[in-house]
Amino acid sequence: MAETRLGRHTWVLVLTIGVALFVADQQTLVATGDPNFVPSVILLGAVVVPAAFVAFVYGRRLPYDVPVGIVVSTAVLGGVIGTIVAGVLEFGTLRDLGVLPLLAVGVIEEAAKLIVPLGVLLLFRYRRPADGIAVGVASGAGFAALETMGYAFVALIRTHGDVSAVANLLVLRGLLSPASHMAWTGITAAALWSAAATGWSSRSVRRFVAIFVTVALLHALWDGLTNLAGYAVIAGVSIGLLAWITHRAAHGENVLDRGDPRRTALSTRQPR
């Protein structure tokens, strides 16, 4: 049983307070022109929506065993380790090949975001597929937040300190983050936990690989888009997949299983 459970509507409180602080901080920066407010504006703008979405997912009535401390730690470590590994691998690929295909970026980043969730799976005894959803979404949130902070800092430099441009970027990336990094890692981590729940059967491992490739393709398509309609389509598909596996987990089902006789008791226990 989880040590601490978030209330079902905690995410509303996180989002409301976070947005209020971001707006107040951003308006203070505009009014005073004091660059000391820039770091906090970027931090709040990058973190508020991912944090609220993690709270939203963890506040669902799912059969979690993973405690909130592990979820928070995964968000922090998953973001730091994921961005470091992805950055090094992408830099090495760009240096060696002279080009970095979008699919390569998708594969690298989706794999990097799974490093910490895989560690949680192997080091602890949290084996319910619902735990994979929570841990995966948290890792994706940390990655998304740090990546957004990087983009915001670069935008600040390129626009010679245009605060409005940075604020618009933060808002846009924040709103899109649940349908991109967070949804994708939640989906792949659920597939990873599902494979563990079935004893790493060849069928479940192949299913995980198929899910991972699908998510990497969604990531590549996302990176190659130039219009909001395309983003809306991929966002709908990504959130739809996450909602589907969450629904199955809520009913105590192995989230990617379709009657596999090797399903374990962990995946069939009813939610508390």
The gist of it:
It is built from ten helices and no strands.
Q: How would you describe this structure to a colleague?
A:
This protein is 74% helix and 0% strand. It is mainly alpha-helical and 272 residues long. It starts with 9 loop residues before the first helix and ends in a 22-residue tail after the last helix.
Helix-strand layout with pairing:
Blueprint: H1 10-32, H2 38-58, H3 68-97, H4 102-112, H5 115-123, H6 129-158, H7 163-176, H8 181-197, H9 202-223, H10 228-250
Strand coverage percent:
under 5%
Radius of gyration computed on alpha carbons:
19 Å
Structural class: mainly alpha
- From the spread of the alpha carbons, the general shape counts as globular
**How many strands in all?**
0
Share of helix, binned: over 70%
Main pleated-sheet profile: none
Taking the alpha carbons of the first and last residues, their distance comes to: 9 Å
